[in-house]
């Protein structure tokens, strides 16, 4: 039987790039990569001050590192995209502390991917049981209300559910490449009204006199990243009254350390960048992340965030386009709904029964919503 021990690491840098890369491959999942996590932490975007105190879980068998989970101690619920505000409010209303809590997630990133990775050299069930026990003990000792794993794979969610964790689902919209030769062929698979709407929306950008340019890898310049940072902050300021979670240093470090994984799609009015979107590229998936503009242009958001992303995937032969969280409007533009998964352990909660009932009703609601969305598919019936 394997003898495991668990240590908590205060940063990705403290563990080191070589050790981190043994478990998280940037080509498979750019957001779990050392470069992305380290950029968030080194620039202060994920820090104790921002409410995301790094506390990664390292699993050892003897002296050998055999497992790693991205982890943070949270003092709020912002930037998670698996919403637990109702639970937090119930705790507060009845005089209980909901924060701090521990969460395994990529900060500010609602993308399913690797959160907990185990070496294939160890018994998976025993390793997972050791992690389960260690997190329960840490929660008891440090006063965490619980621990959570957000946007994990369905397979991990099923294993964690077997250990007694509560499982929640949400719905996202993603685009899947069916081997299209070009954007027109993709459009021909859509119902006439949806197809005409897309053609009209794309034409409005052209009629506005805007020029669209795609840059990736070495084609991306510091000017692109400065513009993206400014657009990102402007978008958050307009929508939320603050400058967003990410600072200019993060965008710059991301460019320096992960440039080969970045795609920037910009809109120019003359020689001036007036809007841009940032994407990250994995092995078979394009991930749309941040967008912003100087001023409103009709339908430009759809062009830069959706249509250009779809076109890029077709041209590059990528299988999937993950456009991020929310966005029912994506449905009419060729995206299809799917469930995402997260798992939750509440420690000595006075609301266990109420939380269980809430999750049952929430799951039923999302399954119904998924069926309703399927009935609104923009694709022709084959």
Structural overview:
By secondary structure, the chain is an alpha+beta fold. It folds into 2 domains: 4-170 and 338-374, 3-Layer(aba) Sandwich (Aminopeptidase); 178-318, Gcn5-related N-acetyltransferase (GNAT) (Aminopeptidase, 3-Layer(aba) Sandwich), CATH 3.40.630.30. It has 12 helices and 15 strands. The protein has helices spanning 12-15, 17-21, 34-42, 85-93, 124-142, 154-162, 183-188, 192-207, 222-240, 248-258, 300-316, 352-374, and strands at 4-9, 52-54, 56-61, 64-69, 72-74, 101-104, 116-118, 146-152, 166-176, 211-216, 262-269, 272-281, 285-293, 320-322, 336-346. The strands form 2 sheets. The protein has an 11-stranded mixed beta sheet with strand order 2-5-6-8-15-9-14-13-12-11-10. A 4-stranded antiparallel beta sheet has the order 1-3-4-7. Strand 13 (285-293), helix 11 (300-316) and strand 14 form a beta-alpha-beta unit. Helix 8 crosses helix 11 and helix 9 packs across helix 10 (248-258). The chain starts with a strand and ends in an 8-residue tail after the last helix.
**Secondary structure: helix percent:** 25-40%
Low-confidence stretches: none
Biggest sheet statistics: 11 strands, mixed
SSE class: alpha+beta
What is the overall silhouette? globular
- Overall pLDDT level: 95
Our count of helices gives 12
Task: Enumerate the strands of the largest sheet in spatial order, edge to edge or round the barrel.
Answer: 2-5-6-8-15-9-14-13-12-11-10
Structural domains: how many: 2
What is the CATH topology classification name of the largest domain?
A: Aminopeptidase
Order of helices and strands: EHHHEEEEHEEHEHEHHEHHEEEHEEH
The name of the CATH superfamily of the largest domain reads Gcn5-related N-acetyltransferase (GNAT)
């Amino acid at each position: 039987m394997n003898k495991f021990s668990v240590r908590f690491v205060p940063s990705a840098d403290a563990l080191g790039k070589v050790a981190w890369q043994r478990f998280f491959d940037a080509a498979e999942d750019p957001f779990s990569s050392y470069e992305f996590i380290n950029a968030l932490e080194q620039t202060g975007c994920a820090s104790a001050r921002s409410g995301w105190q790094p506390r990664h879980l390292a699993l050892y068998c003897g002296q050998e590192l055999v497992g790693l989970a991205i982890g943070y101690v949270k003092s709020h619920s912002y930037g998670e995209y698996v919403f637990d505000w109702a639970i937090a409010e119930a705790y507060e209303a009845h005089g209980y502390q909901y924060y701090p809590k521990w969460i395994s997630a990529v900060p500010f990133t609602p993308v399913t991917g690797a959160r907990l990775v185990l070496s294939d050299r160890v018994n998976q069930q025993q390793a997972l049981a050791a992690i389960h026990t260690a997190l329960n003990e840490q929660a008891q000792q440090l006063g965490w209300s619980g621990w959570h794993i957000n946007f994990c794979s369905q397979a991990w969610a099923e294993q964690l559910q077997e250990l007694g964790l509560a499982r929640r689902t949400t719905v996202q919209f993603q685009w899947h490449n069916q081997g299209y030769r070009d954007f027109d062929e993709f459009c021909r698979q859509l119902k006439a009204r949806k197809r005409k709407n897309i053609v009209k929306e794309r034409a409005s950008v052209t009629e506005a006199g805007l020029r669209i340019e795609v840059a990736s890898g070495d084609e991306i310049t510091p000017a692109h990243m400065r513009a993206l940072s400014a657009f990102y902050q402007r978008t958050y300021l307009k929508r939320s009254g603050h400058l967003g979670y990410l600072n200019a240093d993060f965008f710059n470090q991301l460019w320096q350390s992960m440039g080969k994984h970045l795609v920037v799609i910009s809109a120019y009015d003359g020689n001036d960048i007036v809007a841009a979107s940032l994407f990250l590229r994995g092995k078979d998936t394009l991930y749309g992340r941040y967008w912003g503009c100087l001023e409103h242009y009709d339908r430009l958001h759809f062009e830069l965030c959706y249509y250009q992303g779809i076109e890029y995937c077709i041209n590059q032969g990528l299988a999937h386009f993950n456009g991020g969280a929310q966005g029912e409007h994506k449905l009419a533009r060729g995206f299809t709904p799917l469930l995402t998964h997260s798992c939750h352990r509440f420690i000595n909660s006075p609301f266990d029964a109420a939380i269980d009932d809430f999750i049952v009703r929430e799951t039923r609601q999302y399954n119904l919503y998924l069926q309703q969305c399927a009935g609104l598919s923009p694709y022709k019936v084959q």
